[in-house]
Recover the amino acids of this structure.
């Protein structure tokens, strides 16, 4: 059974088929919004896992720090090259604006981390033609791909 890629139903679209598609065929440049050099934050560890699985991570944080050897940028708009996936580590109240920025820069997909949910942002992002997953973690999902 496959998932209808035109759906805006968050429960349906966070299905394993969407997760697999984003992780395997959407592209390898991941902007990680909220990633800083703070090793105690979840974004730091998740970015390391993404790198181990061949993804290029791009730290996006107001401090624009270099993290895991990759130059950071203060915003998505500051990144001077194409981004495939925008991985969002901000709270749900701020995540919708980040999803809108992802659409504006021409990203192919948006990934909201665990506990980050915004149904309106999901509908807008899908309506703009991007893939999207909410309330999931790529560091948990990518090893499951086998």
């Amino acid at each position: 059974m496959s998932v209808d890629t035109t759906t805006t139903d968050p429960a349906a679209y966070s299905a394993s088929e969407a997760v697999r598609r984003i992780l395997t065929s959407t592209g390898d440049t991941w902007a990680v919004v909220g990633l800083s050099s703070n090793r105690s934050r979840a974004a730091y560890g998740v970015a390391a896992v993404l790198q181990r699985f061949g993804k290029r991570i791009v730290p996006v944080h107001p401090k624009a720090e270099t993290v895991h050897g990759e130059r950071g940028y203060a915003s998505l708009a500051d990144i001077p090259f194409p981004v495939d996936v925008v991985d969002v580590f901000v709270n749900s109240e701020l995540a919708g604006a980040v999803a809108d920025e992802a659409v504006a820069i021409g990203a192919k997909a948006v990934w909201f981390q665990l506990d980050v949910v915004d149904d309106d942002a999901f509908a807008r992002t899908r309506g703009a033609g991007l893939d999207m997953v909410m309330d999931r973690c790529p560091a948990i999902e990518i090893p499951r791909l086998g």
